[in-house]
TrEMBL record:
The keyword Transmembrane helix applies. It comes from Gloeothece verrucosa (strain PCC 7822) (Cyanothece sp. (strain PCC 7822)). Keywords: Membrane, Transmembrane, Transmembrane helix. PANTHER family: CHAPERONE-ACTIVITY OF BC1 COMPLEX CABC1 -RELATED, PROTEIN ACTIVITY OF BC1 COMPLEX KINASE 7, CHLOROPLASTIC. The chain crosses the membrane at residues 504-523, 529-552. Pfam families: ABC1 (PF03109). Belongs to the protein kinase superfamily. ADCK protein kinase family. InterPro entries: ABC1_dom, Kinase-like_dom_sf, UbiB_kinase. The keyword NAD does not apply. This is ABC-1 domain protein. Residues 96-340 form the ABC1 atypical kinase-like domain.
């Protein structure tokens, strides 16, 4: 066997060494969490909310997530798509976790392969590239060649992942139990989110399951020659080693290289959007993490999918209902879209869906005819937050996967063409619905009916004033109308009153703790005086923080009044 490439200069991180004890792992995680929370508290105290400061905090957080290992890298990758919840600076920094995960020792990778497959590396492969082709949070990929002549890639799992996940599983659970003491946190049912996340994480380290997912994906696209997925070589696959067909390609968002090779970028965008619509709507089985590292384009302009460890399932939609939903999007019919989402199990059918309708209406109004720019969510982040605060509502896991996938696909499409249009890109998929099977006649009739309704609605909508009145009437009937009156002077006054009361309470608690400690010193229980003395120090810090915040607020108010 020929060993290709020289050995890599490997510098392991702490979690890549022998597994830490539970106590050490607890200490590592809690120290990072405490430091980050303290930094946020300090920024809040000194009123430092600048973009530069947020970038600095986000960079530090990314470094710590890398040091903490795969569990927290995966958490960071998931958060990198939540621009509706996080400041844009954090989203940008967390997105780099897709590409910055360090590889582990290739000697260790070979050891895992030989242990799992029961043969030496020279007996298994004619050639094997020592340096990894790619590295991810859960494993790394080496290129190789079988003695039968096939070019393959060997995906090797990081050693000790299951042990590490079990440790992190317990630590994160403890943090959640503490967080659930607070009613503001408890109402969001984070326990269920936690269970979903770790269940998927343990599924992702089962390469047998990933191989089955890859085969199912290939079968779903066997009649679509422009969509490629690798063949699984089962005789070289175990729970921790996965051997796949080598399908080289250009990274899907590498616009310059694709253009240099003469690849049609519009066709690539259409392939990506339509293939995902098919996965989601027809197959009900979709790749929930389609980031650029998991997709590539070959020189023929064909789209290649690589990673099948994070697949999700939803209830497929009947084609007639799918057509109705597409036209509902064109008409901005919020109720029809919400009805379809409930049918697919992507929204929980609770009694009051008014908050969900408002979010869907916002998306239809703002993003139907243009790309989803994540910066636009900054304009409505407060509104969305208020909705969820007034009516706690947890989206099912499948819906969060779809949102993550759509925002990722949108980012890829915008990298290729900043002016692309989602509806235009999905046209080939919509057209394919009417020619794919024996129900073509019914589908064409449904398409004609929906087209007629769209034309009718367009020409009978009335003038702008009439449309506004009808929309206002509709929102009143659905209970979606909200009035908001703001008085900046009153808001500033109320904030000063709140800070003053908080300062007074903290001063009172500090004084009471000191008096209690002094009183205990003159009793047989004088050793217990350390407790109120400690509390007095804590309340003193709270008092100092409140007093400084009050002084800053008063100075800001004076400046605003000038």
């Amino acid at each position: 066997m020929r060993m290709l490439s020289k050995r890599n200069n490997f510098q392991p991180l702490s979690w890549q060494n022998a597994q830490s004890s539970a106590f050490v792992r607890h200490l590592e995680i809690f120290s990072v969490a405490s430091k980050f929370l303290f930094d946020l508290w300090w920024d809040n105290l000194v009123q430092n909310y600048s973009a530069k400061q947020r970038h600095r905090r986000a960079k530090w957080l990314v470094r710590q997530l890398l040091n903490l290992g795969p569990t927290f890298i995966k958490i960071g990758q998931s958060l990198s798509t939540r621009a509706d919840l996080l400041p844009i600076e954090y989203v940008q920094e967390l997105a780099q976790l897709q590409d910055r995960v360090p590889e582990f020792s290739s000697d260790l990778a070979i050891s895992v392969i030989e242990t799992e497959l029961g043969k030496s590396i020279s007996d298994l492969f004619e050639t094997f590239e020592f340096y990894p082709l790619a590295s991810a949070s859960l494993g790394q990929v080496h290129r190789a060649k079988l003695y039968t002549g096939e070019e393959v890639v060997v995906k090797v799992q990081r050693p000790g992942l299951e042990t590490l996940f079990n440790l992190d599983f317990e630590v994160v659970h403890q943090v959640l139990r503490i967080a659930n003491w607070f009613p503001q946190v408890r109402k969001f049912n984070l326990e269920a989110v936690y269970q979903e996340f770790f269940q998927l994480l343990f599924q992702e380290i089962d390469y047998i399951l990933e191989g089955k997912n890859a085969e199912r994906f290939r079968e779903n696209f066997q009649d679509y020659p422009r969509i490629k997925a690798p063949i699984v070589y089962w005789e070289y696959t175990t729970k921790r080693v996965l051997t796949l067909e080598y399908l080289p390609g250009i990274k899907v968002d590498d616009r310059e290289t694709l253009q240099a090779q003469g690849v049609n970028l519009d066709e690539v965008i259409k392939l990506g959007i339509c293939s995902y619509l098919k996965q989601l709507l027809l197959d009900g089985f979709f790749q929930s993490d389609p980031h650029p590292g998991n997709m590539a384009v070959n020189l023929d302009g064909e789209l290649i999918f690589y990673d099948f460890g994070t697949m999700a399932e939803v209830k497929p939609v009947a084609k007639e209902q799918m057509i109705r939903t597409f036209f509902a999007v064109l008409r901005k019919d919020t109720d029809q879209v919400v009805e379809t989402l409930v049918y697919m199990g992507l929204i929980e059918p609770i009694s009051d869906l008014s908050s969900v309708r408002r979010i869907v209406r916002f998306l239809l109004e703002n993003f139907r005819d243009k790309p989803v720019d994540i910066r636009a969510f900054e304009q409505v982040s407060e509104e969305v937050y208020m909705m969820f605060k007034q009516q706690p509502f947890r989206l099912p896991a499948q819906m969060t996967f779809i949102i993550k996938s759509l925002t990722t696909l949108d980012g890829i499409a915008r990298a290729l063409d900043p002016q692309y249009n989602l509806l235009a890109a999905s046209q080939p998929f919509i057209q394919s619905l009417t020619v794919s099977d024996g129900s073509r006649k019914n589908l064409i009739m449904a398409l004609a009916k929906q087209t007629a309704n769209l034309i009718k609605n367009t020409f009978t909508a009335g003038n702008r004033t009439e449309r506004l009145i009808l929309r206002l009437e509709d929102r009143i009937e659905q209970g979606d109308l909200r009035f908001r009156v703001r008085s900046l002077e009153n808001e500033r006054l109320l904030k000063r009153i709140y800070l003053g009361v908080r300062t007074l309470i903290n001063a009172t608690l500090t004084g009471f703790s000191v008096l209690a400690a002094i009183g205990l010193l003159s009793t047989p229980y004088n050793k217990l005086a350390i407790i109120p003395f400690g509390l007095s120090g804590l309340f003193g810090l709270f008092f100092l923080r409140s007093a400084i915040a009050l002084l800053i607020q008063e100075r800001l108010d004076r400046l605003a009044e000038k």
